[in-house]
Model the fold of this input.
Amino acid sequence: MHQSTPSEDASNSLQAHINTLHALPLDATTQALHYLLPHLTPSISPNATRLVTHQTLSGAGDLDTLGRIYLQSADRCTREHATFKTRLHHIALDKLIEDLYVATERLLRDGLKDGSVTIPPLPAGEEAMCSCCRGDPDAVILSGFAEEEALYYWEDDYKAIWGEEKNCGGQYGGGETWLKASREQVERKAQEEGNSSKL
Done:
């Protein structure tokens, strides 16, 4: 299924709605993605743009814009010291966004095979870079690198919460050290936090 490139001028359009999400507070961004993603239908344009449509919003939206917002909001979970609940809410998006990318990847491959889709050349200077290093949402998400990214904590934050409890990995660079908690660790803390709020 092929569609034209998304229009951004109509205020009630899907693309206009997508364009507002990055400016929202983290919790609101995550909630908006939860509302939006399950109701999107994927497609591919003749120039290989990954598109989505919505049953009540007009026009087509750019899936990669949504993908970037999803990836950025995972990063924000660490940088903004998100709550346990927010982090769990975010990782529940992982399968939803992955399914959209898997569907558009299938459509892309089919279009390339039958000649209805053509991939345009990359801008000068980007040809030698790998797509994951460029941060292309399709590459990062389809490679599984985005899975449970919202469970990373600043090293000091992780140790303050879990002490010497074993982490699930780390990211290092640029003078930053992030440690990854397991889903079970975060679920346990969220439950403890919920129980204490009832006292």
